Amino acid sequence: MSALKVAVLANLKKNAPTWPGMPEDYWADLDAEHTVAAMISALQEGGHQATFLEGDTSLYERLQKSPPDICFNICEGHFGDSREAQVPAILEMLRIPYTGSKVLTLALTLDKPMTKRVLAFHALPTPAFQVLERADEPLDDGLDFPLFVKPSRQGTGMGISPQSIVHDETQMRAQVSRLLEKYQEPILVEHFVAGREITVGVVGNLAPPVARRVPEDETAPRVQRGLRFLPPLEIDLGAYAEEEGGIYTHRAKVELADKLTYICPAPLDADLAAELNWLTAATFRVTGCLDVARVDFRLDAADGDRPYILEINPLPGLAPGISDLVIEAQADGVDHAELVNMILEQALARYELL
Ligand SMILES: Nc1ncnc2c1ncn2[C@@H]1O[C@H](COP(=O)(O)OP(=O)(O)OP(=O)(O)O)[C@@H](O)[C@H]1O
Ligand SMILES: [Mg+2]
Q1: In the predicted model, what is the mean pLDDT of residues 328-337?
Q2: Same domain, 79 and 207
Q3: 3-class secondary structure, 210
């Protein structure tokens, strides 16, 4: 393959706008400089010319002036309900190829309730839920305590703390009020799944033809050809059960990230591991993901480790040595540079640029 001009598009924490009174975790989702630097050297190792462009309002003009052959997009966006979809939208206007999922998928999956509706439509297991836009909205019948309260459209554990687990109406209303106030977006209240925490990363694309539905017939062959499943990662939250409530909180993801125990491959029996891969493929498929994604699960300890899909991340973190996807790849003998080039190759194949 001849050397391509690859532009890494990211939103760096250090370039993000700030204002007085901004919550300290507001830009927790954005990337560190060393992540982008590692991606650039990975792409250079892959034989390409790689540069970085900040995914801000100047991006359109800069790309138009000097279009790369392809963009490696990891922009989380700054503002708006569909912020992750904004950069892909301008890339499509400019007709520039890019890695990863497209506009509809990124807008959908940033919205957890909307994603859960799509999963539920396809009978994929996700905790029962309700969305509250006011703290005093009546709770649906069938949602029994303990429940879990989180923002609808955040990542990196933002808004997730031990107070997310609520045991009664008073705790639930108080937590919904706090999150409404802080994030100014609808709040998701869902069945609390007590059990193990597993995440499954995947690189690839489903071999065509691919309908965005799951076969209704349970005995039909499971469509997952074309996807490379990385070994499942278990996050052992036991050491912080007291402080963090046994959940993958914002503090666990940021402050404690290098202190947690990551078990990869997670010790799972073969049937359960195959089931998680299938649920990952099905979620990837019904949400229309491309090239890469990571699906987060909880296994219900009270129901024989039954898996529940919490969410799908089509822009999984790529921080060397830290991000879940990177740890999973390592466990499969794929280092950071290879992982980055694997994702790029998936996109190049889709655009017939290989
Ligand atoms: N319904 C639930 N039951 C039990 N724990 C939950 C539930 N929903 C979320 N959690 C806990 O909160 C963590 C973060 O939730 P979730 O993955 O939805 O948020 P996130 O901030 O988008 O994460 P990411 O960093 O993957 O973007 C989960 O990993 C899990 O530990
Ligand atoms: Mg998650």
Answers
A1: 98
A2: no
A3: coil
Q: Considering only CA atoms, give the Rg of the chain.
A: 20
The ligand placed nearest to the CA atom of residue 115 is 1
pLDDT surpasses 90 at 285: yes
Q: Which of 169, 191, 213 is the last residue of a domain?
A: 191
The residue nearest atom 19 of ligand 1, judged by CA position, is: 157
Residues 169 and 140 in one domain: yes
Element (H, E) at 91: helix 86-93
Same domain, 116 and 218: yes
Exposure string of 102-135, with b = 16+ CB inside 10 Å and e = fewer, is bbebbbbbbbbbbbbebbeebebebbebbbbeeb
What total number of domains does the chain contain? 3
Q: In this predicted model, what pLDDT tens digit does every residue of 225-257 receive, in sequence order?
A: 899 999 999 999 988 988 999 999 999 998 998
Mean pLDDT calculated for residue range 299-304 = 97
CA of 98 to the centre of ligand 2 (A): 24
Q: Which two tokens stand for residue 54?
A: 């900040």
Q: What range defines the domain where residue 83 resides? A: 5-100
Residue 339 and residue 254 share a domain: yes
pTM for the full predicted model:
0.96
Ligand 1 centroid, distance to 189 Cα (angstroms) = 12
What pLDDT does 218 receive? 66
* Mean pLDDT in residue range 277-284: 96
Report residue 8 CA to chain centroid gap.
18
Counting from 1 in the atom list of ligand 1, the atom nearest the Cα of 310 is: 18
Confidence at residue 297, expressed as pLDDT on a 0 to 100 scale: 98
What is the CATH number for 183? Answer: 3.30.1490
Query: Last residue of a domain, which of 137, 165, 191?
Result: 191
Name the closest-CA residue to atom 20, ligand 1. Answer: 155
Q: Residue 24 maps to which CATH number?
A: 3.40.50.20
88/234 same-domain check = no
